[in-house]
Amino acid sequence: MEGLREMLAVMSPEEFRAAARERELEEWRAVNRFCGKCGAEMRQHANPQERAFVCPKCGYAAYPKISPAVIVLVTRGNEILLQRNTHYKLRNWTLVAGFVDAGENFEDAVRREVREEASIEVKDLRYFGSQAWPFPSNIMVAFRAEYASGELAPDGEEVVESGWFDKEHLPEIPHKGSIARAMIDAWLEE
Ligand SMILES: [Zn+2]
How far apart are alpha carbons 85 and 110 in whole angstroms? Predict the structure, then answer.
């Protein structure tokens, strides 16, 4: 699983897509051996075309479950917000990101994550793109946003350091292959 994360930089998008799919299906099989509702042993759906495990006792069907996370490139004039995470494996500077919570839409999640991690408000959200993120079964939904108000301050728990950087003074940025890097590269070309 960690290997795949490192392979991102050298894989083609097609190779990554295939590997992500394999990894996510592996996770789906691993977490659905027993019914989450009644505890009975799950069985493959009778129709092999149907990608589901079905509970013979209560009928519950478990399809591959993908959990969305948002990631956002926040700009302030000619600068972008980058931060360093305490428990992020690669430890390089990256963008604000986090899981979508129950009841939220993507925009709510972006505003909340930026508020929680950097203590600022953002406006003018624009969709950038998305990327399968099989660690273990997520999808990264990427946005651009513009700084609106507040004083930048890392939360001290998830984020240890944060700052505004212009194109001439970027620290080490995320590896090629990630959507974080794609967003930074697109901004660099503007
Ligand atoms: Zn059941």
Answer: 17
Q: For the whole prediction, is pTM greater than 0.85?
A: yes
Rounded Cα distance between 119 and 96, Å, is: 11
Question: pLDDT band at 2, cuts 50/70/90?
Answer: low
Give the alpha-carbon dihedral of 119, 125, 128, 132, to 10 degrees.
Answer: 60
CA–CA gap between residue 38 and residue 115 (Å, rounded): 39
With CA atoms as reference, report the closest residue to 139 among 63, 62, 66, 64: 66
**36-64: pLDDT as tens digits:** 999 999 999 999 889 999 999 999 999 99
Question: Which residues, including other chains, have CB under 8 Å from residue 158's CB and lie 6 or more apart?
Answer: 85, 86, 87, 117
Q: Residues with beta carbon < 5 A to ion ligand 1?
A: 35, 37-38, 40, 55, 57-58, 60
63 CA → ligand 1 middle, Å: 14
| Three-state SS sequence of 13-35 | HHHHHHHHHHHHHHHHHHHCCEC
